[in-house]
């Protein structure tokens, strides 16, 4: 079985209730659920949550909530891998056979079904432990600047501050959207997502937006609206 598991706890601090807050006419959680269902490569979408209201919204849009997440896994410090590992174990205890699992973050309105398909295809082609979405930094990180204690400026990397952008190695960052993995990889605590056994599915900048602040939310809505206009 190929699953998409969406971690969606109820305790968001910077944007209260952001997992089910209205985003361009629908609860935020509706978007990743729909993308996963439309991908055609996911047998079931499961939402891991500790919150009854989030569970109800998840079911409304076609996801399943076979268990409620323990409060000990819904705090500000528990990592995503632990949550996905717990979900797979819970589902196995219910008799589910899990072969591949995609962790899809709840606040990913820009994630498209074709990206979910491409992630699984890359995972299987490369026989990787994990495939995750990433994006290239728009400015060379080697030329970053620091503000010193007295208010002055210092280069983060003095050896590269004077080099041309084209002479520096491109750097990438996690897009914070999608993480495909073999079930065995998720269950093995020694297999980490950012390793030599993983592969990155690189996305264009306009499909990547973290949503941690109200400003992030506003930019994500603008991007989403533009992308929807392009489909018309």
Automatic annotation (TrEMBL):
Key words, A-Z: Nucleotidyltransferase, Transferase
Keyword Transferase (UniProt): yes
Source species, domain of life: Bacteria
Gene Ontology terms for molecular function: N-acylneuraminate cytidylyltransferase activity
Gene3D superfamilies the UniProt entry points to: Spore Coat Polysaccharide Biosynthesis Protein SpsA, Chain A
InterPro entries per UniProt: CMP-NeuNAc_synthase, Cytidylyl_trans, Nucleotide-diphossugar_trans, PseF
Pfam families xrefs: CTP_transf_3 (PF02348)
NCBIfam families, A to Z: PseF
Name of the protein described by the UniProt record: Putative acylneuraminate cytidylyltransferase
Species the sequence originates in: Alishewanella agri BL06
């Amino acid at each position: 079985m190929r699953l998409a598991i969406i971690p969606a706890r109820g305790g968001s601090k910077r944007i209260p209730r952001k997992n089910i807050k209205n985003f361009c006419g629908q609860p935020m959680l509706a978007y990743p659920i729909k993308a996963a269902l439309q991908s055609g490569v996911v047998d079931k979408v499961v939402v891991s949550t500790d919150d009854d209201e989030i569970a109800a919204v998840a079911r409304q849009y076609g996801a399943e909530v076979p268990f409620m997440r323990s409060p000990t896994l819904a705090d500000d410090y528990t990592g995503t891998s632990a949550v996905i590992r717990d979900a797979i174990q819970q589902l196995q205890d219910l008799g589910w056979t899990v072969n591949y699992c995609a962790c899809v973050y709840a606040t990913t309105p820009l994630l498209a079904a074709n990206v979910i398909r491409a992630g699984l295809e890359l995972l299987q082609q490369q026989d990787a432990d994990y495939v995750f979405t990433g994006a290239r930094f728009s400015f060379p990180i080697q030329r970053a600047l620091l503000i010193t204690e007295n208010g002055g400026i210092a280069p983060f990397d003095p050896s590269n501050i004077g080099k041309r952008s084209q002479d520096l190695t491109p750097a990438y960052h996690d897009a914070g959207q999608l993480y495909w993995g073999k079930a065995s990889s998720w269950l093995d605590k020694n297999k980490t997502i950012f390793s030599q056994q993983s592969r990155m599915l690189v996305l264009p900048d306009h499909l990547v937006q973290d949503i941690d602040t109200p400003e992030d939310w506003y930019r994500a809505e603008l991007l989403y609206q533009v992308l929807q206009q392009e489909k018309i």
